Amino acid sequence: MDFMKIAVTGSTGLIGTELVRSLRADGHEVVRLVRRRPAGPDEIAWDPVRGHVDTAGLAGCAAVVHLAGAGVADHRWTPAYKKELRDSRVLGTAAIAEAVASLDTPPRVLVSGSAIGYYGDTGDRAVDESAPPGDGFLASLCVEWEAAAAPAAEAGIRTAFARTGLVVARQGGAWAKLFPLFQAGLGGRLGNGNQYWSYIALHDEVAALRFMIDTESVAGPVNLTAPDPVTNREVTVAMSRILHRPALLPVPAPAIRLALGEFAQDVLSSQRVVPARLLSAGFRFAFPGVEKAIGAAAV
């Protein structure tokens, strides 16, 4: 194994925390980009909104993994929060891309975060990375988000976009909110339950990011989702079975819209996304089925 120096943004989030742990466990040197004063030599200062990155700290990095961004499900989508969602992604990505492009010896690869929201509502239609963008706020945000990385690609840096689905984890992210509900016997399908959920186990998410770092043939958009998306109804059954709790309380669509506002449309929409590029490049999922993914998160 060749040990590398790798820079990571969003290193305190759900995915970033696990990625940093995994990389360091294998002996790689990880430097974390932070928005406060650095507390040690393994931290680099940056300000995504102002477009500032301490490029000296990036010297010698073979890879940069950019995961930072405000949480989509953390707040109601007021105009102010939608601006924060956009700025944290688009401005942050532009800052990183311009910083790595300016280096005398740039990294070999930039893995930049994105999301399957790019595809909008796909209904029952399965889509892979060749599909065009969909409609709605998240789709347009993802288009801008990915476009902001152009300076890195134009500088000859292999640039790959991790279009991540719903990450199955207990310690954070949208799925974490399901576990206490089901454990309390309050879980149930959302709306009619027929909408497809494209999920990925946290273990596989981290493994896929590392695969993108290491695999020279992987560039452009890459769907980070398990091979077989399932409906919300099937998720409900699987959660109930694994947690040994009843799931008798469906949440009607009007109640979801009342609680979540505009974001409810994305909760109720269907995204049947398949990881064609990962599979064709030889990636193997450790938890390819939804029950296995939930079981891994439940322990």
Query: How is the main sheet built?
Result: 8 strands, mixed
Mean pLDDT: 94
* Number of β-strand runs: 14
Strand order of the largest sheet: 4-3-2-1-5-6-8-12
Please identify the top-level CATH class.
Alpha Beta
Radius of gyration: 19 Å
Intertermini distance: 30 Å
Which architecture does the CATH hierarchy give at level 2? 3-Layer(aba) Sandwich
Envelope shape: globular
Under CATH, the topology is which? Rossmann fold
CATH superfamily: NAD(P)-binding Rossmann-like Domain
Instruction: State which percent range the strand residues make up.
Output: 15-25%
For the record, the count of structural domains works out to 1
Q: Assign a percent range to the helix content.
A: 25-40%
* pLDDT < 50 stretches: none
Structural class: alpha/beta
Strand/helix succession: EHEEEEHEEHHEEHEEHEEHHHEHH
Number of helices: 11
Describe the structure.
The two termini are 30 Å apart. This protein has 11 helices and 14 strands. It is of the alpha/beta class. It has one domain (5-298): NAD(P)-binding Rossmann-like Domain (Rossmann fold). The chain is 37% helix and 18% strand. The strands form 4 sheets. Strands 4-3-2-1-5-6-8-12 form an 8-stranded mixed β-sheet, sandwiched between helices. Strands 7-14 form a two-stranded parallel ribbon. It is globular and about 60 Å long. Strand 5 (63-66), helix 2 and strand 6 form a beta-alpha-beta unit.
Summary tags:
299 residues, alpha/beta, Rossmann fold, 8-stranded mixed beta sheet, two-stranded parallel sheet, globular
